[in-house]
Design a protein that fits this description.
Two copies of one chain form a homodimer. By secondary structure, chain A is α/β, with parallel strands linked by helices. Helix content of chain A is 37%, strand content 21%. In chain A, helix 3 runs parallel beside helix 4, helix 10 crosses helix 16 and helix 18 crosses helix 19. Chain A has four domains: 244 residues, NAD(P)-binding Rossmann-like Domain (Rossmann fold); 144 residues, Succinyl-CoA synthetase domains (Rossmann fold, 3-Layer(aba) Sandwich), CATH 3.40.50; 77 residues, ATP-grasp fold, A domain (Dna Ligase, domain 1); 113 residues, D-amino Acid Aminotransferase, Chain A, domain 1 (2-Layer Sandwich). Chain A is built from 22 helices and 29 strands. The two termini of chain A are 32 Å apart. Chains A and B meet through helix 5, helix 6, helix 10, helix 11 and strand 17 of A and helix 5, helix 6, helix 10, helix 11 and helix 16 of B. Chains A, B: This is Acyl-CoA synthetase (NDP forming). Chains A, B: It comes from Variovorax soli. Chains A, B: Keywords: ATP-binding, Nucleotide-binding. Chains A, B: InterPro entries: ATP-grasp, ATP_grasp_subdomain_1, CoA-bd, NAD(P)-bd_dom_sf, Succ_CoA_lig_flav_dom, Succinyl-CoA_synth-like.
């Protein structure tokens, strides 16, 4: 049994700090549980020694409670929490929720106290939610163990959507909106400070929980990337749709900004990448999250593909939906031949296209709407999802009754394909249809957006790679403070670099150039000059030996003049590369998620349009190809406007090797920039590289970022 | 009085083709009018000669109706429509709605018949809606003159939002959704085939109509751009918010694709530009349209600026709203000093920032929420709009009553600033607040999106230029089939071009080059070779006279070999330009909206990211500067990453002059591409140009596109 099970299914519950005032933090949960008719044992505990609290026999201490207690709610002021937890440990309580605030979120003393609470729980084998938690709900067990004032105005009903949020207020907003829409919930939990139980572990629980068929989650920050990844993957493996929100798009801290790649990352892009890799759909708003979750709950499935068919009685609405769909990456294939023939016979005046505009003729054909849908779903039908725009028929239930039954039959006959009705309808009509697995939306654009989100999730899950290996590699890495050292290391890791040479005299520079063939490039080499062009430290297109010797002298004198403090290793001589497409590849060492591979094209698209993509390391060459495809500018590599196709395979290989290198040395790296990495018609090559190492001694555990 | 007034306020109405069957097209409007209790005279007309139809005295022909008839609904089959309209003309009817379909939308014969209907109306001075119209509504007059089955399930109530749509089905969807949300409507009209009355004219009417304070509109295609522009501007001048949808993003027809500019236009970008110039907000979904319209109806105003303040009881929701707001171009300035001080005193534990997170402390302060809002609105407050996230308090009306009254007082004390409450609430609470001008939203993201749309509309209206002159210029234009001719014309129009020369011998080429100074560029000149590089027709960086002579011979022999049929005018010699930023400027001759100026940067941003912007011609240099600013890549012109600032003033001047040139020659032009137009540190210059002329004789009226 999952260790969080007693959180939701306790047979006995005590509230330490229970209050007779039903408006106080210690009074509200008791009131909600009594009002709802929770069937388990309920023990109010208050050291005041009152004999009765809110009509229930009360106890002065937990120890006085007869028999075992599964679940304890602690709602006493900060100074009493530690003692309360010790009481729980002595009573062999299984799970504790701490509602009290004023711990790690408040100050250092609070953080210290919170750490002591964790120790007490660990030693006693108890699980703890909070501190600073708002509570949890299990409507099927009438267990409303929260002090949220939301319960003053509404009571969530049982359903199949489970919800885990860090912020209780955010969770209340989400389940409040769900409840007002008539959407039921299996479990709801707010994790607060996450000293022990975090959102990831709740997702893990919900993935196991038989009553939960769809999962909603919301994070403000994640401390344990590996645990989150594993939980998301578990939900995907369990076939449970998962819609997640990540609130706050603050930039990553200074530690991560050691490289250009790091500064491009921002943690938002990293969360996007991790969610996508783990088959979760990130929603931009609470409403979008609920739309997708409810759609999945009603249909019980994700669409098998991104192909949709649209039947409509309004040309305009059909076009609106088609435009929305293609904006969201959905596809509208033509009708199958058999369908087109059947429709031509059924409604001769309508054009058998997709969207299929029935014209007003459909109303003059008995059972017209249903027969159109039947035809659109004939064998050979390409649609993963079928939409029917039915205007306002659901507002006239008696006129709609026959069609309603036929919609339910069609759904039953095509269990593999979500059927989505877009119409205005009375609540009763909607409920009957949804109970039979037929989704109903009022707004056409929201219907399309919800299906697009679900279909995207299905696609992500189909393409999901098996687990990302923990990136704890700590293979020793020699220093790489200069471009030459960095390239040598990357070359050794299998990333193509040029045959270049660091020279310490004008003569040796000319000799090196002679061996490579002209023209060549000369660059100053110094760990103290990371940005060579700023001191005029790069000279290109040198045609002969005398130009090379002159370049050597120019660079050395410029360095002496413009960076007098810099220790100079010499001048790098390398073959001049022409042509090809400049790309940027890099590694961002994320403090939560470990090494992330970055890819973008050279030029300004990266900065102006944020046209970059990230993926967790390590990456196979095949997955690197998907990373390349995720960047819009990659079109320039693939035969742009009749131009040539560049060697994306060489690029993918390099990305894969770079990712493996990053994993091997995860503990020592701060980040890597390879800019430019030039992709040629055949092959690809690194022209400049910067490896940034961690300043502090290697830190074996991922750092927290808050 | 507006000529459309009798459409909505008839004192007497006849229905030609009235039916006893309340489910038929001729029966439904009669039923709806009777059921609703329309107070005017109602005359069913049916040539069957029935004495009574649906309980009302009926007439065999319109002529038999005693007394005048203002408004006639025609619902007879196609063959009877013309005669019915002649009856109306004889009866001196003011307005006619034709519900019958099967005209221009069906076939050529239908189009011809429709043209005859228009003639009858014009001659009789009657106004006509349709044919193929679904009807119109004026809820305040209980006038439901439609055959839409939407009225079977709902009846729109009076309100201040007027709605004009081309498609009746689209309109039904929109007013149906509005009605289910409790949103009232002043007028609703569907224009169908728009043989006479179009959406633009309805907007014009709604701009005058005293009951209408907010306008919603939806178009599928516009035939008269000038009329639409004028109507949108009139709504803006009347201070009535206008939210519009344009359905269908098909590309413009072949006529417009004569130039690269034309192919980039697509009519979607053109509609975007026109709507924005005329101060209308384009909505992407029906829900967004209703959200913004309802917000404006409730608050009775547009926000004065894009600065918002957010009060929140949930840190997470505050961050979500702040992120949404900045995505949509809104700004969150810090609290005024006075506000921050007051809040520090009121809630010492909360940080006086924006969003202002009250923390749970606010609940322990009497009247806390209202006092926080008071403090945020102290003198010096920078906020154009104030949001308050109040969770679910509106679901407990008695607990909320005191705060509710305070919210209404605060709104009254700050009539210049919309106050938006984001909370779950009972319908009664919402209605009381909204009646007092306080907006209420359940979903935080939708609240922010609605305010952002309204604030954007206000900004567009503040920046609106005075009317666009009708672009009917037909000043004669000499031929411009070659680059040289095109540049000569543009140069004469004040657009900077290089001092270049078309030469017809190697010697004259060398002489010309000598006069310009080296290096120079040589290009083949032929009206038959529009794409010179494809035949190797351009040679650059020619350093001296012998290179120029050789280039002349090379180009002539390449042309002879690779384009043997081409008539060659000679070789163009021009100074070689280095440096600067390449831009693309052009003119798209839109068949509906006339000449539109296009701007984008060279490189791939135009194609990959559609990073271009359009504006109606003519354009002052100041408005050209806004056009430049609307393109994201323009950052490269303005000191990108510490680089130099280029001469955007010279660019703006060129755009303005090009726009005036296009207006002067609107009748003859098909389009203009200037690519590249190089912007230097000082000045700018056209390096290549293509002027495309209309093939057919100049057409004085804008062509239709469908």
């Amino acid at each position: 049994m999952h260790s969080l099970h007693p959180l939701f299914f306790p047979s006995s519950v005590a509230i330490i700090g229970a209050s007779s005032d039903p408006e106080r933090i210690g009074g509200r949960p008791l009131r909600f549980l009594v009002e709802a008719g929770f069937a388990g044992a309920l023990y109010p505990v208050n050291r005041s020694g009152a004999a009765e609290i809110q009509g229930l026999p009360a106890f002065a201490s937990l120890a006085d409670v007869p028999g075992p207690v599964d679940h304890v709610i602690v709602a006493v002021p900060v100074p009493g929490v530690e003692a309360a937890l010790q009481d729980c440990a002595r009573k062999a309580v299984k799970v504790v929720q701490i509602f009290t605030a004023g711990f790690a979120e408040a100050d250092a003393a609070g953080a210290e106290l919170q750490a002591r609470l964790v120790r007490i729980c660990r030693e006693a084998g108890m699980r703890m939610v909070g501190p600073n938690a708002l509570g949890l709900l299990n409507p099927s067990a009438k267990f409303y163990a929260t002090f949220s004032t939301a319960l003053n105005g509404l009571r969530p009903k049982p359903g199949v959507i489970g919800m885990a949020t860090q912020s209780g207020a955010f969770g209340s907003a989400a389940y409040g909106m769900a409840t007002l829409r008539g959407i039921g919930l299996s479990r709801v939990i707010a994790t607060g400070n996450e000293a022990d139980v975090d959102v990831a572990e709740c997702i893990d629980y919900l993935a196991d929980d038989a009553d939960t068929r769809v999962i909603c989650a919301a994070l403000e920050a994640c401390k344990d990337g590996a645990r989150l990844r594993a939980a998301l993957r578990k939900a995907a493996a369990a076939g449970k749709p998962l819609v997640i929100m990540k609130i706050g798009r603050t930039e990553v801290g200074a530690a991560a900004a050691a490289t250009h790649t790091g500064s491009l990352a921002g943690n938002d892009a990293i969360y996007d990448a991790v969610f996508a890799e783990c088959g979760a759909h990130r929603a931009a708003s609470i409403e979008e999250m609920l739309d997708i979750a409810h759609l999945c709950a009603v249909t019980g499935q994700l669409p098998a593909n991104e192909r949709i068919g649209i039947m409509t009685g309004s040309g305009g609405i059909g076009i609106l939906m088609a435009d929305d769909a293609s904006d969201l990456g959905m596809v509208l294939p033509p009708l199958a031949t058999e369908s087109a023939e059947a429709l031509r016979e059924l409604l001769p005046f309508a054009v058998p296209a997709n969207p299929y505009d029935t014209t007003a003729q459909v109303t003059s054909v008995p059972d017209g709407v249903a027969r159109v849908l039947d035809a659109m779903l004939l064998p050979g039908s390409p649609f993963g999802t079928l939409f029917a725009y039915l205007a306002h028929v659901g507002l006239s239930p008696s006129r709609f009754a026959a069609t309603e039954r036929r919609m339910i039959d069609i759904r039953a006959a095509h269990p593999d394909r979500p059927l989505v009705l877009v119409m205005l309808s009375e609540q009763g009509v909607t409920e009957r249809l949804e109970a039979a697995g037929v989704a109903v939306f009022a707004d056409p654009s929201r219907a399309v957006r919800a299906i697009a989100g679900a279909a995207r999730m299905a696609r992500l899950r189909r393409g999901m790679r098996s687990g990302i290996a923990a990136a704890s590699g700590s293979q020793p890495l020699p220093p790489a403070s200069t471009e030459a050292e960095a390239k040598a290391l990357l070359g050794a890791a299998g990333i193509p670099v040029l045959p270049e040479q660091t020279c310490t005299s004008a003569e040796s520079a000319a000799r090196a150039a002679h061996g490579m063939g002209y023209p060549v490039v000369a660059k100053i080499v110094s760990a103290d000059i990371p940005h060579k062009t700023e001191v005029g430290g790069v000279l290109v297109d040198l045609p002969d030996a005398s130009a090379v010797s002159a370049a050597y002298r120019t660079l050395m004198s410029r360095a002496a003049e413009r960076a007098p403090q810099a220790r100079i290793d010499g001048v790098l001589i390398a073959p001049m590369v022409r042509g090809g497409v400049e790309t940027i590849i890099g590694i961002h060492m994320d403090p939560v998620f470990g090494p992330m591979v970055m890819f973008g094209l050279g030029g300004t698209a990266v900065e102006l349009f944020k046209d970059v993509a990230f993926a967790s390391a390590p990456l196979t060459a095949a997955h690197a190809m998907s990373l390349i495809d995720a960047v819009r500018s990659s079109a320039l590599l693939k035969g742009w406007r009749g131009g040539p196709a560049y060697d994306t395979q060489a690029l993918a290989d390099a990305l894969s090797r770079l990712s493996e290198f990053a994993v091997r040395h995860a503990d020592q790296l701060a980040g890597i920039d390879i800019n430019p990495f030039v992709v040629n018609l055949q092959g690809a090559v690194c022209l400049d590289a910067l490896i940034s190492m961690r300043q502090a001694p290697a830190n074996p555990s991922p750092r927290e970022h808050t």
